[in-house]
Design a protein that fits this description.
With 111 residues, the protein is mainly α. The protein is built from 4 helices and 2 strands, in the order ββαααα.
Length: 111
């Protein structure tokens, strides 16, 4: 089977069989390289230090503020705005509203 493939943009002719076989040769080389077993020595690694645990405890991971569920009626225009902003930033629109209210409360408390 000796077919030629024409790449019209470059005007190149490639023998299809040679092209496929060259790919197989490369695959064999990669397989041979990847199949080699790693050899480790018993040499000492060197000086090392145990790092202190820097991860927060489960208690520290809890939310700073407790949330209270409420039911509220907002204008359709406001909800549409928050939903569009949330979609743009890959967030939940309720979270944006909650953060906005929290920042407003913090600002009022500092006055």
């Amino acid at each position: 089977m000796n077919q030629e493939v024409e790449f019209s943009r470059q005007g190149l002719h490639i023998d299809l069989v040679a092209f496929v076989l060259s790919g197989l040769d490369i695959g064999v080389e990669v397989k041979r390289f990847m199949g080699k077993a790693k050899q480790y020595s018993d040499e000492p690694i060197g000086d090392f230090k145990i790092a202190a645990d820097f991860l927060p405890s489960p208690e520290e991971l809890s939310l700073k503020n407790e949330n209270t569920k409420v039911t509220i009626s907002l204008s359709s225009e406001s909800v549409a705005y928050f939903k569009s902003v949330a979609k743009e930033h890959h967030m939940q629109y309720q979270k944006i509203i909650r953060q906005l209210l929290d920042e407003y409360v913090d600002h009022q408390k500092r006055r």
